[in-house]
Design a protein that fits this description.
about 270 residues; mainly alpha; Rossmann fold; four-stranded parallel β-sheet; 4 strands; about 5% strand; globular
Length: about 270
Amino acid sequence: MIARLDCEKVVDYITRRLRWYVFDSAHRESGILGLSGGIDSSVVAYLAVKALGRERVHIFLLPTDVTPQADIEDAKKVIKELNISSENCETVSIEKVIEAFEGILGKAANLERGNIAARTRMIILHNKAAIHKGLVIGTGDKSEMLMGYFTKYGDAGVDILPIAGLYKTHVRQVATYLGVPEIIIKKPPSPNLWPGQTAEGELGIEYETLDTILYLRFDRWMSEEEISKASGIPGDVIEKVLSRVKITQHKRHLPEVFKVGYRDIGSD
């Protein structure tokens, strides 16, 4: 149901825009990337190297104690495939930082601890960006951005989001085109902020269905009734997805500013 990409054109467009934005618009010297071993960050790593050159991409692995070892190994596979030098890669465990927060604030539940982890990672990446005169390159895709499936001022607190115009379905197509290891493409997406977490499980819907709804609504501009008729997806599922898009809108905007017209206010 969702349109198939011309991956060659899309990759060319993203890499040209990324190169221009980092070097010409922002006048920075490098790209800073947190690599999780998942499909989104792996695709962004491949795109960043194509756009900026491997010598100008700095990769950081930022695991916690609950980060699966398999994800760490997958991230290292990407680094090896891209031939990024050890001088441009660093692993920094953030577990002690999270424990320090819990020591002050008390034991955190899964969601709270996950948000602390996501925001800690962003603090580190922006610190590294300052050191390397770079921009922090985000890894969020369009599906997750529309659903608000990210941590505000955490994984969304970046300088640029090169694949936020691609649904997860399209990210998988681009991953195959770029030669991302198949094990990464096929494994279930997960932020791995706590044990057993999966994106589809937390969202309550498979990406294939989710992307069909989002694509037909926001790219084809169909009504809920038209989406259901065209796709066969039940109306209550469509309504639930679009309701979440609406209530998470605040996460995709800068803070609301209450404008005051001073000419209309009297003074003492």
